[in-house]
Amino acid sequence: MTKVFDPKRRHDREMIAHLAAKLMAEDAIEDFSKAKNKAARQLKVSDTHCLPSNLEVELALRQYHKIYQQEEQQDRIKALRLQAVRIMKLLEIFEPRLTGPVLSGTAARHAAIDMLLIADSDKDVELFLLAKRLAYGRTERRFCVGDTCFKVPGFTLEDESASVEIAVLTPAQWRALPRSTADGKTWAKLKQVECLLVQEKTENLNNV
């Protein structure tokens, strides 16, 4: 059956994407679903088919940052990535990977740094944190691979200007996750994050 093109539905979808992006940028909402549902309520759109994809919201968020917060956003991402590098070096024995909005460059104000660690047990990580006398809180993270979802233990580190949200995966759980995309958006190792910082510095010098 041929899909009927609905201009109103498309318009509502775009409006929700842009409002959700604004909410994420201005109100520090990090969850895409929460931002989309809040935007739909504010716009009084009840048709769930009008909800945009996460990718559509991310593209709108990038556009919002470029128009309204470009210099602030560049400084924020640089500072958060530098902070992430320092933490990744500290936790290097657990093969840390940076993920989430700090890696993708869409981190809003008050965003946390999302990180994955690989360990046989979260107890190994906890003992390490205790040995380093790092203040932490215990958390739990949810991951989905296809139709299968599972929860993993995690930790929150209150560090400098941004908290660090850590998820601890076993080697088997890590192997089940999707691999990194070509542009490194899914996750990045320490060296990849350091390369991003060098690349950004070079681009900024070229723009002077």
Number of self-contained structural domains: 2
The CATH class of the largest domain, by name, is Alpha Beta
Q: How many distinct beta strands? A: 5
Tell me the distance between the termini: 54 Å
Strand order of the largest sheet: 1-2-5-4-3
**Rough outline:** globular
Average pLDDT reading = 84
* Low-pLDDT sequence parts: none
Give the helix tally: 8
Compressed to H and E, one letter per element, the order equals: HHHHEHEHEEEHH
Give me the Rg, rounded.
19 Å
**Largest beta sheet, briefly?**
5 strands, mixed
Please bin the fraction of helical residues: 40-55%
Please give the CATH architecture of the largest domain: 2-Layer Sandwich
Query: How is the CATH topology of the largest domain named?
Result: Beta Polymerase, domain 2
Can you tell me about this structure?
With 208 residues, this protein is an alpha+beta fold. The protein has two domains: 7-68; 71-207, Beta Polymerase, domain 2, CATH 3.30.460. Helix content is 50%, strand content 19%. The chain has eight helices and five strands; from the N terminus they run ααααβαβαβββαα. It has helices spanning 7-26, 32-42, 54-68, 70-90, 101-104, 122-131, 171-176, 190-207, and strands spanning 97-99, 113-118, 136-145, 148-159, 162-169. The protein has a five-stranded mixed sheet. α1 (7-26) crosses α2 (32-42), α1 crosses α3 and α4 packs antiparallel against α8. The radius of gyration is 19 Å and the shape is globular. The N and C termini lie far apart (54 Å). The mean pLDDT is 84.
